[in-house]
Amino acid sequence: MDKAQPIISFRKADILNGESTVIYGLDMDIFPGDFAYIVGKVGTGKTSIIRTVTAENPLRTGEGTVCGYDLRKIRSKDIPYLRRKLGVVFQDFQLLMDRTVDRNLEFVLRSTGWKDKQKIDERINRVLEDVGMETKAHKMPHQLSGGEQQRIAIARALLNSPEVILADEPTGNLDAETADSILRLLRKLNAEGTAVVMVTHNRTIFENYPGRVFSCTDEKCGELPPRRLLNLT
């Protein structure tokens, strides 16, 4: 992808949560290779931006494009194709608890059109190696620690070679040491070429792992100058 062409772009976009506008006039560009944070207190619209990017929330005012799709004009049948270009990581992992790690990943691949068993197995092995979980393929989720479950969730997000990973409070349920390991993993994936957009209210994270920072406050969201830090308590 052309590095001058944003993966995610909003212009004067009003971001909704249900029928309520939570952010007015959002301007944002995320480019290939970016590591960007969306920060702010609880309830300031951070997750609503992510839901707009994935076309879960509609965009009715302003302009928005994601991976070449116009969010104002996208058809319902095209939304699954948009989402294949995105890797989403949640705070609560959202693994299927009734099946093993490799069956969790196989389920996603088959749901997105993969049919060849050998290619499926090869892709599962590759993403598990990418996140350091290659020995955990036959474990059940309940047999894994929180940090290991989150690594599997990141592996799941990588399955279809996304243009960007959207990580919504991915360390929120983890202790500090485990959270740090997840941040280092996301930075490694970013260094290898995948853009990352991470939602957090934890100031320590973006102090220790600098990136672009978009701050949500008072129904607005804008990019902060480099090295400007926030008090989010």
Write structural notes for this entry.
The chain is α/β, with parallel strands linked by helices and 233 residues long. It contains 7 helices and 10 strands. The longest helix has 16 residues, at 176-191. It is globular, with a radius of gyration of 17 Å. The model has no long low-confidence stretch (mean pLDDT 92).
List its salient traits.
233 residues, alpha/beta, six-stranded mixed sheet, 7 helices, 32% helix
The overall pLDDT, averaged over residues, is 92
Q: Helical element count? A: 7
Kindly name the structural category: alpha/beta
Sheet with the most strands: spatial strand order: 6-7-8-3-9-10
What is the helix fraction of residues, given as a range?
25-40%
Task: List segments where confidence is low: pLDDT < 50 over at least 5 consecutive residues.
Answer: none
Task: Give the strand content.
Answer: 15-25%
